[in-house]
Write a structure and sequence with these properties.
The complex is a heterodimer of chains A (about 900) and B (about 110). By secondary structure, chain A is α+β, with helices and mostly antiparallel strands. With about 110 residues, chain B is an alpha+beta fold. Helix content of chain B is about 55%, strand content about 15%. Chain B is built from four helices and three strands. Chain B has a three-stranded antiparallel beta sheet. The chains are: A alpha+beta (about 900), B alpha+beta (about 110).
Amino acid sequence: MHTLLARARSFYRALVRPQQLGADMEDEMRFHIDMQAQRLVREHGLDEREARRRAALAFGGVQRHKELGRRIRGVQWVAGATLDVRLGLRMLAKHRGLALVGGFGMAIAIAIAAVAFGVISAFVDPTLPFPQGDRVVSIQNWDSRLSQANRRALYDFGLWRAQLRSVRELGAARMLVENLVDEAGRSEPVALAEMTASGFRVTRTPPLLGRSLLDADEAEGASPVAVIGYDLWQSRFNGDSRVVGSRVRIGGELHTVVGVMPQGFAFPVRQALWTPLRIGTVLPDSGPEIHVFGRLADGATLQRAQTELDALSASLARAEPQTHAMLRARVLPYTYPFLDLNDPAMVRWLRVVQGFVMVILVYVCANVAIVVYARTAAREAEFVVRTALGASRGRIVAQLLFEGLVLSGAASVVGLALAAGALRRANALELGTGGLPFWMRFGLSVDTVVYVTWLAVLAAVVIGVLPALRVTGRDVQSRIRAIGGGAAGLRLGRSWTALVVAQLAITVTLLPIAMYSYRAACGHAFAEPGFAADRYVATALYLDDATRRGAFGPADARRYAALQRTLLERLRDESWVAGAVVTGTVPGAAQRARVLVERDRPLGGTRRADTADVGGEVVGVSLVGADFFDAFGVARLAGRAFRDDDLTASARAVIVNRSFVRDVLGGGSAIGRRVRRLAAVPGDTTPEVWYEIVGVVDDLRYPDSDVPPAAVYFPLDRAATYPVSLVVRTRGPAPAAAATRMRALAAGVDPTLRLGDITTLEDARRQEQLVWRVVSSGIGFLTLSVLLLSAAGIYALMSFTVTRQRREIGIRTALGAQRKQLLWTVFSRAGTQVLGGLGVGVALALLIDVGLTGGALLRGQGLVLVPAAGLVMAIVGLTAAFGPARRALRVEPTQALREQ
Amino acid sequence: MTGSAELLPGTLDMLVLQAVHLGRMHGFGLMLRIEQITGGALQVQQGALYGALYRLEHQGLVASEWGVSGNNRRAKYYRLTAAGRRRLGQETESWYRLVDAIGMALRATPQEG
């Protein structure tokens, strides 16, 4: 034990102060030699110089003994590594082009890999910020018939709570958004959770002020209480501690505030307000939709909990076959149901994406490796000499590994910085209402840094070790002979040709696809709306009491329509409002749907519904009111606008846009033709209804990545649609106080009339486009780096090949060959490789295109992109061959022979 | 015959430990001391002495510190640690056992009969 400690201490000292160690050993040995020299002068009468010479000789090499000293301490590699790093830096400075192009490519690939790792980890392996947060789980009923979760699980929750042993503190929450009206009368929607008191126990988070909910609060007839979140306490109550005991109105009902939760607490997802969940008596598969969660009991595992739940599900299926025959309860990591990760296949898919991103890095590194290989091969003489002087193969491989590490390390630092910036921006993304879930914070975690370090080593192995192994592979004797004779050291046989062909093929395959994706992503990221989007404020209209009841009856519909009218009137009276409309769909929120068009124009009043195209066309479908097009300044091109009698369930009129007429109908007159929506789900039994096109309007240009430009507008039935959206057009840019004013007006019309998120269409567009901007810049940088690297790789390969033919060219010149013949030899070889690569690449691009997109790429820009990529690579390849070939031809035959 | 003998493999460390045991000293002094205590019979290869010292120090058997030599120069002095003292005891004991055994073997004479 003592020896082990002493060794560790000695190793550590040598490791942290290698310079000091070297200097100390040097001093000590010099002292010894000096003393010995003095002794020789004294005892043998030698002159000082001779004495020193003999003393040094008797001692042996100081360097050798120092090396031994390092080896004994286990740090002999440190000096070597320091030297290698220094050499690596020198090589980077010497080959600046390679450093820049290779480093740039790797930095981009590493940044993309780090972002993908960070984001996917945040989804798949989240950490809940609670004590033992990894023990918190979700439980849900899975409907195997519909392949979706059934969240009406209040009945099941009661059974699970009574019977489950492996999951404790079982709780349930219902998530709503309701108006919170404080004592001053200010009203604002707040994300609310009706939650069992056990929800607070699951999180093991004590309240900051007052108390959290108690089991007694859930009892029927208990006085209504509420717990508020930290941010709400700060923003609405100015952080006043007297808030505990005050009364607030939530969804029309008065509640007493009993506690404040600490900052960052937003359980279950992003909630800011908690009231007790009252369960009462419920029937199977009824009641509101809830989320069920709990904590694994000590020693329990997910598998054990699942086994227990399987048994409960089986007995429930027997007891309630009508509702539970197809339901199976599942236990999942807590966050999965919120992120649509219910399906294990989805989680696996995300892991595949994570792996795929790494493949990109390996591909980029392989490109860098090709360039490095050409450089390494050119340095063969250096390695042979070092080997002859006693350096082992391992030592030389280590040197090249360190050179690779210097490059990949620098690229990693840049890549991490880029990733940190991208992840910081990702935090600004809104996932639904109110930002990211409480457990999700994107950023550079220790895991990400470890991952990137691992990637850097992987990259260094690919770019350093692989070329090194190949170059140092042959035995020293033959290499020395080869170099001494001036002959080409490395044989560049079939594998070299294969490398050139493969490199070209992959580039020609990938480039058009990458450029196509880049253009598509840019199209989404930078599209501008066709109207002044900053002058349109949009929101959704909710009736809180109807939401709370979970039902929307005819009486509610009438009241809802009346409230809409009153609100519109009051809004139009505002001085800053230029107009206000109610619509089913705001721009950017159109649904994708398949519609069928009647093939022939109706003749003589007889309609032939049976002649419809099979399959239909995907278009964007919107529900709009009569005043919608005027509000957005959309011109009418043909036919008429919606009339009041169109806006009823029995009416059968639609309006289409210019793109629809062009893309779906193929031009011509649209008025009078008929369309119908296809069933969204196979087996849907909704009756097939044909709609007649009564008008054509111009395209409403607004970026929407999900739907094609062809649009069909259905008339909005205000009484049958819930919730509807409200769009307010402002006179100037939307005033900052617009949201507050709109909420005040709505609350004035009716306290239960609640406005959802209020945002200008401009902000909504920016939010939507933010993702596309990140994606497009990622693809753009990656494409650029692949293009640069491929070009550099091809250039290096071709020029290296031709340089190696220099001797042959010299000899043939000496034998009287013509310049033309020689050039033909060089270029026919290079040309064969280039053409071979291009041919394979184009074929692969075609195959992938047909396989993935059904040939869409080649119908459009691919026609230009594929040959363009091929041409660029061909020019690069032939240019690379040209320079060295010209130089070789200028060589005097005698000189070429002398080089032999 | 010059009177000096080859050092047996594996005995250098023991010899250095014994030399350090006699008193705190720098490397050169230790070399002189070994010559002295072996009556000049054993010659230590000078550079190898440092290999042994670094090995013993790495194992925690000797400790070192910088000091000033008799001629006023900066020198590194070695001293025995408690672990070094124990090891020297063990080595000495096993050496004598070995010498006794080999001596006994060499003293054996052919038996009649």
